[in-house]
Each structure stands twice: as structure tokens, then as C-alpha cells.
């Protein structure tokens, strides 16, 4: 793959150590896809690349996955589907958020498949196909318990009457709590989905997201739809992560100071030194996706520096955070600090921030210097 074009500011100064560095390991991404593909067995394995590939960059991620053999992609929006079509003329591209009113021609023109999830969407797509005299492809989303998107059971008969107006390419549904392998509703959803599949004419079926692929029931059907696991998230919370790390984030120390017991640090003086401490200020804040909530909960975030886990102290501010480096090996201005890497994973940081690793990924933002390796 050719060198990725970086914004001028990234080329200009690799030594701007006031800015954090986000590294995306594309070979680890490819390896994760291969692991999931192998797991899917006879089923095909798609890639979910919505929200700019979970914040990691649609173009570099999709290009790497295409080169690795992935031929099915899921995005959320029509505009994301159009961006992806500009990268690949042949891949099958599904838009999970369905058919916005009046957009059918835009999908059809670029051979993009809306995932139709309600009767009004199906009616509009069928009417468009009849008017054009062509059966364009689309997917059908069946609700099996989420009550978010997807066709309700009461609408199945009306939907069935419209199917021959277009080319149904896929029938799919989505797990409510696949990351909890013990949840009885997983089994119930699989059964409801199987019943729906039996009612509709034969077409490829898809149910499993990342965690769904690790359920004992292993309901792979014809196509699996992992997202999070591709990017290194753990699809089996509570057990070892079978995926390779894709993302690392490092920030740099701007200054170091020693403070006495009883002195406070950060906005609103929410933290007070229990004893003499050595603090470092790093160039990373909530505007960089280091969520302020990671400094507000019972268990705060830690970073890894000087061979030790260093707690964040005081409130995370927009561009800066303060860490306690008293227990670390000597550190100084310009030294690097690991936010995400070998010692700290996105699931850890999600937990410390009162959220999930998914939100950590999608909040990383565009402010870091971005480095893609393994392309
Ligand atoms: C986001 C999404 C996925 C991917 O889920 P992960 O948990 O990231 O693997 C699959 N299917 C649907 C419908 C989704 O919205």
C-alpha cells in the first residue's frame, strides 16, 4: 500500500511533543479479520466500518481489509456508504441505518444496499424499484428483541407481499447482549431469528456481531458482522482477549513538579496530595478523547509511565491531565506516557471512564498525530 497522505502539520513536525500520537496497526487489524474469518468457518465474514471505522479511519481500514480478502462491509449512513464506494467498486456495502426518505435513487445509483428495517422503508424501496423497472438489492432487518431498528413480527405478512419488487440480499438481526454469554435472551433471539428466516424466502442470513461470534451457540448463519473485535476490542469480556491490539495512544510529559502533602491539583481542587508527591502534566485531555469522566469515578484512569501504573489525579481538563509519577522511575519533560498500549487496553480505559471500549475508540477524535503502521 502506498504511503498514506498525512496532513501537512503531521509531516511538518514529528517532534511536536505537545500532541499525543495515535498509532493504528493495520497488520494487527488484518490478523484480527483472519482470526474471525477462520472462526466463521463456512460463513462469510464482513467488517463493520461505521463511524469512520470506529474512529480509526475508514479509508486506511477499509483498504487493508479489502486487501486481506474482506468483501462485505457494513456502515451506518448513506454518506459513509458513498465514501466507501469511492474506495471499492465491487464490495457489497450495507447501510445499517436504513433508507432515509427520498434517498432510494442515491443507493441504487452506487449499488449500495439499504438495510430496510420498517414497513415504510420497504414500501418506499419497493415502489422505487417498480418505478425504475429494476430489482435493486437491499437487506431486511428483523427485530428480535432490541426494539430499535428492524421489522416487527406483525409487519411480516405485509413485508412478504413486497419482497418480489426488489432483490433481497440478506436477512439480518442484532443481539441485545451478546457480550454476556450467560444471558438467556441470546438463545431466545436466535430462535426468533430462525423462525423469521423460515417465514421469508431463502436468502443469506446474518446475526452475529463480534461477541455473538464467541457465544457457545455460535450462530454464524451465512455472514458474520464483527466490528469491535477487528479493532482489538475484547469480544469475550471477563476472559482473555483473543484479538490483537490495533490501537496505541501515547502522550508526552510537559512538566514535572513536586508538591507537599495537603496541596491540591487541577480544577476545583478535587484532589489533595496525601503526602509529598511528584506530579507530571501531560498533553492530553478530554478534547483528545481522554474522557473527563475517567477522573470523576470511584476508580480513576491510570497511565503507564516509567515502568509503573500512574494514577490520574485531579480533573482531566480539555488539553491536559495530571498524573502521579511518585512510584515511577525518574521521568522528565518530553518523556512518553502510555495511555493505550501493551499495559492498558481500550476495555480498561472504558471501564475507568464509566463507559465501554467502543466509546473510547469512537471518541479518539482527529486531534492526535495519527500514524498507520503495517499497511
Ligand atoms: C455495530 C453493529 C455491529 C458490529 O458490532 P460489534 O459489537 O462492534 O462487533 C453489527 N451489527 C449491527 C446491526 C451493528 O449496529
Descriptive overview:
It is a single chain. This protein has 375 residues and is of the alpha/beta class. The chain has two domains: 41-231, TIM Barrel (Alpha-Beta Barrel), CATH 3.20.20; 247-373, Lyase, Ornithine Decarboxylase, Chain A, domain 1 (Beta Barrel), CATH 2.40.37. 27% of the residues lie in helices and 22% in strands. It has eleven helices and 19 strands. It has helices at 8-12, 26-40, 50-54, 58-68, 78-85, 104-109, 119-132, 156-162, 184-199, 346-352, 357-362; strands at 21-25, 44-45, 47-48, 72-75, 92-95, 113-116, 137-141, 167-172, 205-206, 223-224, 247-259, 264-265, 271-272, 277-282, 302-305, 308-313, 321-324, 336-340, 369-373. The strands form four sheets. Strands 1, 11, 14, 15, 16, 17, 18 and 19 form an eight-stranded mixed β-sheet that branches. Strands 3-4-5-6-7-8-9 form a seven-stranded parallel β-sheet. Strand 4 (72-75), helix 5 and strand 5 (92-95) form a beta-alpha-beta unit. Helix 2 crosses helix 4. The longest helix is centred in the middle third of the chain and has 16 residues, at 184-199. The radius of gyration is 23 Å and the shape is elongated. The mean pLDDT is 95. Bound molecules: pyridoxal-5'-phosphate (PLP). Residues 48, 50, 96, 174, 209-211, 225-229 line the site of pyridoxal-5'-phosphate (PLP).
List keywords for this structure.
pyridoxal phosphate, TIM Barrel, alpha/beta, 375 residues, isomerase, 27% helix, eight-stranded mixed sheet, 19 strands, Lyase, Ornithine Decarboxylase, Chain A, domain 1, 2 domains
Amino acid at each position: 500500500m502506498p504511503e498514506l497522505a498525512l496532513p501537512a502539520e503531521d509531516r511538518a513536525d514529528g517532534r511536536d511533543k505537545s500532541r499525543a500520537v495515535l498509532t493504528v496497526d493495520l497488520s494487527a487489524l488484518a490478523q484480527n479479520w483472519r482470526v474471525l474469518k477462520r472462526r466463521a468457518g463456512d460463513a462469510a465474514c464482513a467488517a463493520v466500518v461505521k463511524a469512520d471505522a470506529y474512529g480509526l479511519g475508514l479509508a486506511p481500514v477499509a483498504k487493508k481489509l479489502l486487501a486481506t480478502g474482506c468483501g462485505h462491509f457494513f456502515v451506518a449512513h448513506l454518506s459513509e456508504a458513498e465514501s466507501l464506494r469511492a474506495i471499492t467498486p465491487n464490495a457489497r456495502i450495507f447501510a445499517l441505518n436504513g433508507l432515509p426518505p427520498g434517498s432510494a435513487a442515491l443507493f441504487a445509483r452506487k449499488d449500495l444496499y439499504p438495510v430496510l428495517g420498517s414497513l415504510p422503508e420497504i414500501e418506499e424501496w419497493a415502489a422505487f424499484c417498480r418505478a425504475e423497472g429494476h430489482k435493486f438489492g437491499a437487506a431486511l432487518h428483523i427485530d428480535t428483541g432490541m426494539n430499535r431498528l428492524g421489522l416487527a413480527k406483525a409487519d411480516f405478512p405485509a413485508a412478504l407481499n413486497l419482497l418480489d419488487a426488489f432483490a433481497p440480499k440478506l436477512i439480518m438481526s442484532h443481539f441485545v447482549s451478546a457480550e454476556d454469554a450467560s444471558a438467556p435472551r441470546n438463545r431466545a433471539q436466535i430462535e426468533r431469528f430462525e423462525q423469521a428466516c423460515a417465514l421469508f424466502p431463502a436468502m443469506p442470513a446474518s446475526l452475529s456481531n463480534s461477541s455473538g461470534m464467541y457465544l457457545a451457540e455460535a450462530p454464524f448463519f451465512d455472514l458474520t458482522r464483527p466490528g469491535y473485535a477487528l479493532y482489538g476490542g475484547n469480544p469475550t469480556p471477563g476472559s482473555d482477549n483473543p484479538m490483537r491490539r490495533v490501537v496505541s495512544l501515547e502522550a508526552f510529559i510537559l512538566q514535572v513538579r513536586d508538591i507537599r502533602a495537603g496541596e491540591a491539583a487541577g480544577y476545583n481542587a478535587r484532589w489533595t496530595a496525601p503526602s509529598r508527591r511528584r506530579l507530571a502534566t501531560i498533553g492530553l485531555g478530554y478534547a483528545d478523547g481522554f474522557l473527563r469522566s475517567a477522573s470523576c469515578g470511584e476508580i480513576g484512569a491510570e497511565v503507564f509511565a516509567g515502568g509503573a501504573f500512574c494514577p490520574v489525579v485531579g480533573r482531566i481538563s480539555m488539553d491536559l491531565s495530571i498524573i502521579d509519577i511518585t512510584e515511577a522511575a525518574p521521568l522528565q519533560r518530553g518523556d512518553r506516557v502510555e495511555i493505550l498500549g501493551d499495559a492498558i487496553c481500550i476495555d480498561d480505559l472504558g471501564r475507568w471512564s464509566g463507559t465501554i471500549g467502543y466509546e473510547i475508540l469512537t471518541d479518539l477524535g482527529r486531534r492526535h498525530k495519527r500514524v498507520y503502521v503495517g499497511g
